Amino acid sequence: SATVDEVLYIPAGYVYWKSGSYKLNPETPPLPRILCEIPLLFLNNIHYDPKEPVAAFNDRYHWSFRFLFFQNAAIAGKMIFYSRIPTILIGMALLAAIYAWTSKLFGSLAGLFSLALAAFEPNLIAHSSLATTDLYTAAMIFFTVFSFWSWRQNPDKNKLLLFPGLFLGLALLSKSSAWLMVPVLFVLTIQKPSWKNVLRFGLILLVALLVINIFYLFHGAFVDKGELITFMLRDKAQKFWPLRIILFPFPRLYSLSMLWNLAQSMGGVHPFPFFLNGQYSNTGLWNYFFYAFLL
Fold first, then answer.
1. How many CB atoms lie within 10 A of CB 232?
2. How far is the CA of 77 from the CAs of 205, 234, 249, in angstroms?
3. At CB < 8 A and 24+ separation, what contacts does 75-80 make?
4. What's the CA angle centered on 123, arms 11 and 121, to 5 degrees?
5. Which has the closest alpha carbon to 213: 175, 248, 177?
6. Gap between the Cα atoms of 101 and 96, Å rounded
7. pLDDT in tens, 264-293
8. How far apart are CA 91 and CA 144, in angstroms?
9. Alpha-helix residue ranges (DSSP H) falling in the chain
10. How many angstroms separate the CA atoms of 292 and 237, rounded?
11. Of the N and C termini of the chain, which has fewer Cβ atoms inside 10 Å?
């Protein structure tokens, strides 16, 4: 059976491959959905007409449900299974990277121990079998830090900085929360403050930006996003004027996903309600993750 996110993600990724449209799920970066639906391209009996108008945003879940469980009811189970195969492969690659990094640090026996811990970790088991974004994000973040560490072992080989830049770009294309890696990499890069290390950090960001723009074929990149910021943030747009500078080099659709998440976190468009200790909020609760980690 499909999880609630897969009901949207699977059709959204397939529609992109067939029509090039992101409209079914514009509020999140698209990489996991697009990779997940590659196996569906080898199924010839999926009922979908690329000329069919894409559902309006408010009707996207209904449209996706009909696409998956009515239009393709006979093969819905097969579509769900096929869509999960790429995630399983990414999960295996993550396990291999965990083993490789631990082995380099502490030896092969420690590598096998860390591999066993990861292989039986409940979160990895759960998310590596779903066509969703979480495993992709975790893997790309891990690959980013691993490749950054590999460069730190050979700091004179600046070409190795291309790899953390590549994986950071893929992480940012997987989920908006991956932006937390940017300040982390900055701190790691300038542990020994120097202009050379600042430039190295800039190189990582430039490579990541290039990866994102190539993915979107540079559509809407290096264009002022003032109108988009005003549309998404409305009366709060003035407070976030630096976003016009930050978003300038990014593709328009990627900027939309970033602004969507920002607006949603402020209780704007389609907010998610939060509950903790008897409190409800549409803008999130600052201490939520502290409780989550303790539990």
1. 23
2. 40, 42, 41
3. 75/43, 75/45, 75/46, 76/2, 78/43, 79/10, 79/40, 79/43, 79/46, 80/1, 80/2, 80/6, 80/10, 80/131
4. 140
5. 248
6. 9
7. 777 666 666 778 888 887 777 778 778 877
8. 15
9. 4-19, 31-36, 60-66, 76-106, 108-119, 122-127, 134-153, 162-172, 181-189, 195-215, 226-233, 243-246, 252-265, 288-294
10. 32
11. C
Q: What angle do CA 158, 163, 167 make, to 5 degrees?
A: 145
3-state secondary structure at position 76: helix
Angle formed by the axes of helices 162-172 and 195-215, to 10°? 50
Q: Please identify which residue in the block is written with the tokens 């409780």.
A: 291
Token duo for residue 261: 């998440």
Return all residues near 107 (Cβ < 8 A) that are at least 6 apart. none
Distance CA 26, CA 271 (A): 15
Using CA atoms, how far apart are residues 133 and 33, in angstroms rounded to an integer? 7
Tokens of 11: 């059709």
Predicted confidence (pLDDT) per residue in 132-146, tens digit: 999 999 999 999 999
Mean pLDDT by 10-residue block, N- to C-terminus, for the chain (295 residues)? Answer: 92 92 87 96 91 79 92 95 97 98 96 97 94 96 96 89 96 94 92 88 96 95 93 85 94 93 73 78 77 81
Rounded distance, CA 139 to CA 117, Å?
Answer: 16
Task: Supply the pTM of this predicted model.
Answer: 0.91
12 vs 83: CA distance, rounded Å: 12
